[in-house]
Design brief:
With about 350 residues, the chain is an alpha+beta fold. It has 13 helices and 12 strands. Helix 5 packs parallel to helix 8 and helix 10 runs parallel beside helix 12.
Length: about 350
């Protein structure tokens, strides 16, 4: 296809006539139009043919990437697509997104609205276990990565006809001394990133203590390995959100959401059954009190599933999961939470990650 297009390319518009493009074209010469000017009325395009006076004006700039060229990619979301196909579902599964169909439909809608690519990790879904109504359930959170933030900001700047640029990143130590490059071994106290929109500065400042997830007073995962990089991403996200509030307000990156999941919007969709004949409502029975013995047996079974049979090793993980040193005094709620956390683990590596026993993170 590439060789054919190159051989048949028009010398005026550099495109093969007769192919479908989501781009304004001249009805007489079939050339793809070029951008003539941009103003309050929109963007005006003109035909490159000699003495042709055809013009076309539209409110937004035309884009080839999001429509024609991207649609030829193997995993691209196509125009009019209403659900993921088999190849896309397989790729999402590899990325750890195994949500129910209703949640996946919401995720597709969010990808289409933001025009972000989940397969390039510009946008993703994270599963968490949350307690609702006395029971634990999976809750999927849609999160935008910093690459997705940059894509949205660049697109917003292009559509508005403004110039987006960055200043230097500055890190601060505990005494408030600025650093152009962070070379100290301890984490920085804060980071500052300035985004410029047509020369107007929009600073973003993020304190390490406000965003870094801690366990036993120490940063976890990548926050312990590359703290300067992680806090700089939070500062950059805040600066971009201030510069482009219409496009980014209410959206958070994963690093901003590391300390608490409450800041990121949750999207939880359920299949709604068909209406049934109205019946007289009966009072709901009180849920039975969980049996501590059964919970402990379930914990043992989960440890065995994860190939953890050493008693001391089990006790160590259980203390990390419950936050309680005295395992004999664990409450029913702590036992139930431990069961839920263990059930969510696919292997021992996953358990090590959620307990902070490893610094690796995808």
């Amino acid at each position: 296809m590439t060789a054919l297009l190159a051989a048949d390319a028009c010398p005026s518009c550099r495109r093969a006539h007769g192919q479908h493009y989501d781009w304004p074209a001249c009805p007489d010469h079939h050339h793809l139009l070029y951008e003539l000017r941009a103003g309050p009325e929109g963007v005006t395009y003109a035909c490159p043919a000699w003495k042709c006076r055809h013009t076309h004006t539209q409110r937004e700039r035309a884009t080839m990437t999001a429509t024609h060229e991207a649609n030829h990619a193997a995993l691209a979301i196509r125009d009019g697509q209403d659900f993921w196909d088999k190849k896309q579902l397989a790729a999402l599964s590899i990325l750890g997104i195994n949500a129910p169909n209703a949640e996946l439909a919401v995720f597709m809608h969010r990808c289409q609205v933001t025009r972000l690519d989940p397969f390039a990790r510009q946008i993703t879904m994270i599963k968490r276990r949350e307690k609702a109504g006395g029971e634990y359930r999976d809750k999927w959170t849609i999160q935008t990565e910093i690459d997705g933030y940059r894509v949205i900001a660049a697109r917003a700047a292009r559509d508005a006809g403004v110039v987006l640029s960055y200043g230097d990143t500055t890190w601060y130590d505990g005494d408030g001394t600025p650093h152009d490059v962070w070379v100290l071994t301890e984490p920085p106290a804060a980071a500052r990133v300035v985004v410029y929109k047509d020369g107007k500065p929009f600073p973003g400042v993020a304190r390490f203590a406000s965003f870094a997830p801690l366990k036993d007073g120490k940063p976890m995962a990548n926050w312990a390995v590359m703290p300067d990089h992680m806090i700089a991403k939070c500062a950059e996200a805040q600066a971009l959100r201030r510069a482009f509030p219409q496009d980014l307000e209410g959206t958070f990156i994963a690093e901003e959401n590391a300390r608490t999941a409450a800041r990121a919007p949750h999207f939880h969709a359920e299949q709604i059954p068909a209406p049934q004949q109205r019946q007289r409502r009966q009072p709901a029975p009180e849920p039975p009190e969980p049996d501590p013995g059964a919970l402990k047996d379930n914990i043992g079974a989960q440890f065995h599933r994860l190939s953890i049979d050493d008693g001391d090793e089990r006790d160590s993980y259980l203390r990390l999961l419950t936050g309680e040193d005295d395992l004999a005094s664990l409450t029913i709620e702590q036992l139930a939470r431990a069961v839920a956390d263990l059930e969510s683990c696919d292997d021992i590596g996953h358990l090590q990650y959620i307990t902070g026993e490893t610094g690796d993170e995808e």
